[in-house]
Amino acid sequence: MEQQAVRALQKNLGGDYTxxxxxxxxxxxxxxxxxxxxxxxxxxxxxxxxxxxKFQESSDLGIxxxxxxxxxxxxxxxxGENE
Length: 83
Prior knowledge:
Helices cover 13% and strands 45% of the residues. The N and C termini lie far apart (34 Å). It has one domain (3-71). By secondary structure, the protein is mainly beta.
């Protein structure tokens, strides 16, 4: 099943989805627009650390609940700097 279709089902019916960002990218913001998940990233600085975020939805009645887990990774190089 296409990734966008999977995310749409998870958004509408609840469920969990994991988004792994490209290496050395830092999450700035995330949101839904219709059935698409949009996220803004920026390059990590030397001071940034990789983090994991949970973007959660729940209805007023608690019926539809979903979680998007966003995972950052930081690749260190031999000289201790990022790419």
